[in-house]
Write a structure and sequence with these properties.
41% helix; single chain; mainly alpha; 2 helices; 0% strand
Amino acid sequence: MSIRVYIERVILEGIPVDHTRGLRKAMERELTRLFSEGGLRNELRGGGALPQLRAGAITLDGGRDPQRLGTQLAGAVYRGIGAPK
């Protein structure tokens, strides 16, 4: 199964612009891992698009580290569209 996730926009206030590349890479890496291990929600397996996803809150316990923040954001996205545990 091939899963393609397209995220048009992520809005983060207070994050330095120079962190965006590392954040993006960390999100991609973590989403790949999560979908490889857990898959996609059944109702999305046939394809589809969501105009918006409220992925829930994250805790910024890693400060402004782009790697950690990207991993946390990917987890929030996955909780919205990934297979339930």
